[in-house]
Amino acid sequence: MSSLFWNKYFGDSSLKQLMVIYIGDSITFGANHFNPKSTAPPVIASNFIQEQLKGTKVHFVNCGKNGSTTNDFLPEKKYILSDVIKAANRFVKHGNGSGQIIFSIMLGTNDSARKGLEGTPVFPNQFRLNLKIIINELLNMYPDCKVVLQKPIWFSNNSYNGENYMQDALERLISYHPEIELLVQEFSITRPDAVFLGDSVGFDHFKNNYLTDHTPEKGNAGTYYLHPNKKGAAKLGELWADSILRIISNY
């Protein structure tokens, strides 16, 4: 984003400034969409948030990366997290330190894979530890930021493309949910009002509506359902927006 883009909005001192940075994998990116820049969940979520916050200018960056896991976003890996940091630093620079940064994180789908991605499968305790490391890095760099942890959503138990998921991966994904809740509880003690639980109903929604809200894909074990289609991405974006709006209601 150019300086002109940022200056256009930060030049209006009457507007509060909100930056939402979405961290995730191909689901966040908007995989299989004709134009993810228009239909990916972060776009829908940010537009929804903007509609509700009349006195605030909402900026956002989609940092969803296809095939990524919590391992890939660890600070030591640098190459993916660097995009997140660049986006946050740009916001801080052009906003002269004003405004609120929110990191919305939904990871876990690729972590759960039985094989096909580096470091997988990621077992539940390691998944929580990885998220903790990522969050601590963000909080250390941006002390006033808020982090929202969105629970990963359902996929069919025959999902098998370049990566091998299947039933045990789905069970592993489900096991991440209480780890996310535990992590939020831990941070509520060490960093109050910084880390929050986001969407918790998306998993069941896609489990019950996969025929209409997922893209059918051909895989090594038949037709599987892993990525939300345009309709599903809109629903997921609304769920993320609802969770973020709850958190910033007093902003």
Characterization of the model:
- The chain is of the alpha/beta class.
- The protein has a single domain (3-247), classed as Rossmann fold (3-Layer(aba) Sandwich).
- Helices cover 45% and strands 18% of the residues.
- It contains 10 helices and 7 strands.
- It has a 5-stranded parallel beta sheet with strand order 2-1-3-4-5, with helices on both faces. A two-stranded antiparallel ribbon has the order 6-7.
- Strand 3 (100-106), helix 6 (124-141) and strand 4 (146-149) form a beta-alpha-beta unit.
Strand residues, percent: 15-25%
Largest sheet: 5 strands, parallel
Please bin the fraction of helical residues: 40-55%
Identify low-pLDDT runs.
1-9
- Strands of the widest sheet, in order across it, are 2-1-3-4-5
What is the secondary structure topology, with strand pairs?
Layout (H helix, E strand, L loop, with lengths): L2 H8 L5 E9 L1 H4 L6 H4 L1 H12 L3 E9 L16 H14 L5 E7 L17 H18 L4 E4 L16 H25 L4 E3 L4 H7 L1 H4 E6 L2 E7 L1 H18 L4
Parallel strand pairs: 1-2, 1-3, 3-4, 4-5
Antiparallel strand pairs: 6-7
Helix pairs in contact: 4-10, 6-7
